[in-house]
Amino acid sequence: MKVYGHPMSTCTRKVLTVLAEKGHEAQLVVIDLGKGEQKQPEHLARHPFGVIPVLEDEDFKLYESRAIIRYLDQKLPGPSLTPTELRAKALMDQWLSVEQSYVSGPAIKILYQRVLLPMRGQQGDESLVASAKADLAKALDVIDKALAGQEYLAGSTYSLADISWMPYMQCLAVTKVEDLINDRPNVAAWWKRVSARPAWVKVSS
Ligand SMILES: N[C@@H](CCC(=O)N[C@@H](CS)C(=O)NCC(=O)O)C(=O)O
Question: Tell me: the pLDDT tens digits for 162-178?
């Protein structure tokens, strides 16, 4: 198996975390976003939207990180990352959707303003950071409530939902808005728990 991605990319990290949880090695083919390799014809042939990650499993190609992690979880042996109980599985899907709809966008916006623009010698716009932070605060209030009395987003089982949120939680630390996590006791306890998992430590260090 090959993963076309970048070790620092949030979406690639979801895929690498699932592979690590499953104990499966895949070849990471690094696409250099700094050089714009994701927009070159060679990569556009793999991913028509010119982003990463892409999974190649023999003659099968798949893009979109949330589709890839679902595929890998079903395909590979190792611990299941999808609850079997109907309602827990439905909650996993709900939190995956919440992450996609309300979390990844503002988290990446902050990363762009606070890290990527300064890396290019440009100043970020703190008013955009403030509005993205407010959006994230709303989403984190929602999971803080949901996590009261349960260990993981889908209930008692660590799942793809937790994995899909984790790279964005790490983004908050990197962009110096970790108060969004620390001010919410259930989110903070959950983040401490999930970020200590060996698979995540391996992928994120
Ligand atoms: N919905 C896509 C988003 C992919 C995405 O935005 N990837 C980022 C890296 S995390 C990327 O390739 N950015 C480069 C660009 O937008 O040109 C997924 O979940 O795979």
Answer: 999 999 999 999 999 99
Find out whether the beta carbon of 10 lies less than 6 Å from any atom of ligand 1: yes
Alpha-carbon distances of 114 from 33, 111, 117, 128, 129, rounded to whole Å:
17, 5, 7, 10, 8
Pocket test for ligand 1, best of 3, 4, 11 (most atoms within 8 A of CB): 11
**Token pair belonging to 6:** 């970048």
Query: Is 203 among the domain residues?
Result: no
Q: What is the model's pLDDT at position 78?
A: 95
The reply to whether 92 and 156 lie within a common domain is yes
Whole-angstrom Cα distance, residue 19 to residue 62?
Answer: 15
DSSP lists the bridge partners of residue 62 as 55
Domain count within the chain: 2
pTM (global) more than 0.85: yes
Within 10 angstroms of residue 97's Cβ, the number of other Cβ atoms is: 13
What CATH number is associated with residue 187?
A: 1.20.1050.10
Nearest CA to ligand 1 atom 9: 9
Q: Which residues have CB under 8 Å from 71's CB, separation 6+?
A: 55, 57, 62
Is residue 204 one of the residues assigned to a domain? no
Domain that residue 180 falls in? 86-197
Q: Supply the residue whose CA is at minimum distance from atom 13 of ligand 1.
A: 51
d(CA 108, ligand 1 centre) in Å: 10
